[in-house]
């Protein structure tokens, strides 16, 4: 995790809330340094084991922890009113599993539909070139600028498990993208569209992954400060008519909304055959915004927790 953190905060409660079972406080969103662009499924599976251990240690947390700092189950979240959720940060969190088993063999083979699939990032890092000559590029810490608006939720798709424990997950619908902006130590801001659109992941319960589509951060009708757009607006900068066809201005004049590709890996930490709940950890690498093709995208690494319900 990172040295510089971007904390999840919420407003204090102005009314009494019925006491709830104490749980592990949810980790703050951080923007940390990471070692390498390519992370293996094996590492994510290892992180899933740590995640299960964290859930198992929930009884050690002080009962006085504020409600908005706790991880809540799906039923507990459904039992809250709008005013209880408003301004608390709870709407930006994924449910956690109170019961279940870390023995992944408890999940029987079958062709499931996964609903309520939720991804909650706990870390955002951006790959930058080394400040030292000959140094390797590395993922650096960032500061989250867009606050509590980055969780993906209500995603659905097909989740098939065969007799050998092999998994195939295809994302189909849901709130599967969220605009996010982070700031690098030097002050540069990096916008990107956090997403898993059209994810097609394969592997085992210990670790499965695949590619997904990253749509353009802005649409073709967006106009830049010079009035240029992909499907509307000027073809070039009107103030520079003599340089309208200049090669160095081509990428600014010709707007591109071509979708890019990202990769994600997931690992299952807990399953509950009785309720159909399933949860684990994930890590994804995706490109940032390209300013409609005018800039080269940066690599964004996102790690966090996920939750879903199988039926």
Automatic annotation (TrEMBL):
<keyword id="KW-0464">Manganese</keyword>
<dbReference type="Pfam" id="PF01716">
    <property type="entry name" value="MSP"/>
</dbReference>
<keyword id="KW-0602">Photosynthesis</keyword>
<dbReference type="GO" id="GO:0010207">
    <property type="term" value="P:photosystem II assembly"/>
</dbReference>
<dbReference type="GO" id="GO:0042549">
    <property type="term" value="P:photosystem II stabilization"/>
</dbReference>
<protein>
    <submittedName>
        <fullName>Uncharacterized protein</fullName>
    </submittedName>
</protein>
<dbReference type="GO" id="GO:0010242">
    <property type="term" value="F:oxygen evolving activity"/>
</dbReference>
<dbReference type="InterPro" id="IPR002628">
    <property type="entry name" value="PsbO"/>
</dbReference>
<dbReference type="GO" id="GO:0009654">
    <property type="term" value="C:photosystem II oxygen evolving complex"/>
</dbReference>
<keyword id="KW-0604">Photosystem II</keyword>
<keyword id="KW-0793">Thylakoid</keyword>
<keyword id="KW-0472">Membrane</keyword>
<comment type="similarity">
    <text>Belongs to the PsbO family.</text>
</comment>
<dbReference type="InterPro" id="IPR011250">
    <property type="entry name" value="OMP/PagP_B-barrel"/>
</dbReference>
């Amino acid at each position: 995790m990172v040295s510089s953190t971007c904390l999840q905060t919420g407003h204090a409660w102005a009314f009494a809330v019925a006491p709830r079972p104490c749980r592990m406080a949810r980790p703050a969103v951080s923007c940390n340094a990471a070692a390498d662009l390519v992370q293996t499924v094996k590492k994510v599976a290892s992180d899933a084991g740590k995640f299960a251990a964290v859930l198992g240690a929930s009884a050690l947390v002080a009962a006085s922890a504020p409600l908005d700092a706790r991880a809540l189950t799906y039923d507990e979240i459904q039992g809250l009113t709008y005013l209880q959720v408003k301004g608390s940060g709870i709407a930006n969190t994924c449910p956690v599993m109170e019961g279940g088993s870390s023995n992944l063999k408890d999940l029987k083979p079958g062709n499931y539909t996964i609903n309520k699939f939720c991804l909650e990032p706990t870390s955002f890092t951006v790959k930058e070139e080394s400040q030292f000559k000959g140094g390797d590029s590395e993922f650096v810490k960032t500061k989250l600028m867009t606050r509590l608006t980055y969780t993906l939720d209500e995603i659905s798709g097909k989740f098939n498990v065969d007799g050998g424990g092999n998994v195939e997950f295809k994302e189909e619908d849901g709130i599967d993208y969220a605009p996010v902006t982070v700031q690098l130590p030097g002050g540069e801001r990096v916008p990107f569209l956090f997403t898993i659109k059209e994810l097609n992941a394969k592997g085992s319960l210990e670790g499965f992954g695949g590619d997904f589509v990253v749509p353009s951060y802005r649409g073709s009708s967006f106009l830049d400060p010079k009035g240029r757009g992909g499907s509307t607006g000027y073809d070039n900068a009107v103030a520079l008519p003599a340089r309208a066809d200049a090669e160095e201005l081509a990428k600014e004049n010709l707007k591109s909304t071509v979708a890019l590709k990202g990769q994600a890996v997931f690992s299952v930490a807990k399953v509950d055959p009785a309720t159909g709940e399933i949860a684990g950890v994930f890590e994804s690498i995706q490109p940032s915004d390209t300013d409609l093709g005018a800039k080269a995208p940066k690599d964004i690494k996102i790690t966090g927790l996920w939750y879903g319900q199988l039926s």
